[in-house]
Write a structure and sequence with these properties.
The chain is α+β, with helices and mostly antiparallel strands. It contains 9 helices and 9 strands. A 5-stranded antiparallel beta sheet has the order 5-9-8-7-6, with helices on one face. Strand 7 and strand 8 form a beta hairpin.
């Protein structure tokens, strides 16, 4: 099977959300990992869809997808956690010795040592559960510092700079170019709060991806007469690497960008 990047290049890259995943890149990653079928994309040419579907059919069966295997490996670590302490450190609500409730991207989730469920009792996609478990498993995370930093300032971020710029900030900037009011509406639908921030930006919103994981979105709209393209900066708290590993930080950023630009959000 092709890699996520190879599949992504064949997709329309419109982030329409018709496949059930907010971004084309996220959909490509799920197809590559066996979490989604290429047939869910309705915008592919018949030739490409047939070719990739044949590759899927020829894939050998294996014991769980990459995400499912990662989730299985996390569960013993989560089972050993003191949930009362975890709740206090993460800003979650302690329910019992094996259950807490936590907000993730503005949505409530019930977390136990065996599974995670949304408000309807349904398990989220495995990569969402992995992000939540990874966050809760970090040792002794500090409270937010109140100091904003760019992604490139986060330790060990160098190898992921292009992914953050291209799959997070550029996705948002390009989608809302010339539409600051649309960006504001999308921010507010996702729980963003208007923020005070110095600078010449056209919009500033603060989010809480987790209770102790803030993010600040700054949007600079395009100025065509000055040949200035729209730009977006998604700043993180200086302590962010104490709350998630660098891979998870990028995946969370991509999921946020996908939800911002999804047609379902309009």
């Amino acid at each position: 099977m092709r890699t996520a990047v190879e599949i992504y290049k064949l997709l329309p890259r419109t982030n329409c959300g018709a496949c059930g995943t907010p971004t084309c890149f996220g959909f490509a990653a799920k197809v590559a990992a066996g979490l989604a079928s290429i047939t869910a994309c309705t915008s592919l040419s018949e030739a490409v869809r047939t070719e990739l579907a044949a590759e899927e059919a020829g894939r050998k069966e294996r014991p769980g997808t990459v995400y499912e295997q990662a989730l299985d490996s996390l569960r013993p670590k989560v089972a050993a956690l003191d949930f009362r302490r975890v709740a206090a450190q993460s800003g979650a609500t302690y329910v019992s010795e094996d259950t807490i409730e936590i907000e993730f991207l503005g949505e409530p989730f019930v977390v136990t040592k065996e599974r995670i469920a949304d408000r309807y009792g349904k398990e989220p996609l495995p990569f969402i559960s992995i992000l939540i478990y990874n966050h809760l498993s970090r040792p002794d995370p500090p409270p937010p510092s109140g100091e904003w930093v760019t992604f490139s300032s986060v330790p060990a971020s160098h190898a992921k700079d292009k992914a953050w710029a291209g799959h997070v900030e550029k996705v948002i900037a390009d989608h809302f170019s010339g539409n600051t009011s649309g960006l504001r509406a999308a921010c507010e639908r996702l729980g963003g709060v208007p923020a005070e921030s110095k600078g010449a930006h056209d919009a500033a919103y603060e989010f809480r991806f987790f209770p102790h994981y803030p993010a600040l979105l700054l949007f600079y709209d395009a100025v065509p007469e000055e040949d200035f393209p729209a730009q977006c900066k998604l700043l993180l708290d200086k302590t962010v690497d104490k709350h998630l590993d660098i891979e998870s930080i990028v995946v969370l950023g991509e999921e946020f960008a996908g939800r911002m630009t999804s047609e379902k959000n309009h």
